[in-house]
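Supplementary Methods, section 5.1.

A reviewer requested that the exact input to the structure prediction be made available. We therefore reproduce it here, unchanged from the version used in the analyses.
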Amino acid sequence: MEEDFSKYNGEGTILRKAQLRMLDILIEVDRICRKHEIPYWLEGGTLLGAVRHGGFIPWDDDLDICVERKNIKKLKKILINELPNDYLWQDRFTDFRFPIVIAKVREKNSFIREDFSDKLKCSGLYLDIIPVENIISPRIKSFLDYVYGHSVRSIHAGPLSFSDACLSYLSFIPARVAVAIIRFLTIFSKGSKIGHVYGWRSYNLVSSDDIFPLTEIEFEGHGFLSPANSHNYLTALFNDYMQIPPKEKRETHSSTYVFD
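The structure derived from this sequence is encoded token-by-token as follows.
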């Protein structure tokens, strides 16, 4: 007998309302990306939800897409100009207290509580936009993710102590230079795989052949872009991805939502 997941996001629940509002953001970003021929694909738990549930993982409260790093600046400029007035682009350059190296498209007329939400200009429901790039060494990425990611987070979110502040500023520049050097060397590497951008602490790498050419997958009744081989992609991320986790491991990112 299949488990009834309606207790998590059944019609009328707060979580379901939040999910549908985030779905609206994804629909809008998908429309703009297709209009300007900017490739993206469903990522992580969003792709897993599409394959395993046909939509949101019942207890999940975020959406993720990937965009190649080389297209991020173009996408940012387009979205800032073309997003509806009730949405905005957010990264550490548009909002200094945003302490991570990815970006979000936020809804202005809502609030979702996270670790650093009270410091941000906008803390509405969101779509995560995760830049990806070629990675030549998981070990190097792991080290740079920690040093570079930690320094970015401390500088933007605010350090925990004076010593932490000193360490963050002292490590930021050499870490940034190291990332630039590694990216240059990657140009000459033929064996690299694709992973999340340096500074985003995620170490699962995927073959480009499992991503391109992109295809479509149904998510909540809508068609969105997805990797060419979702099975291999999800196996690289989650191993036995069709296995439903036990109840004690079904966690949402937030327990607080406020709608307009």
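The two ends are 39 Å apart (CA to CA). These observations are discussed further in the main text.
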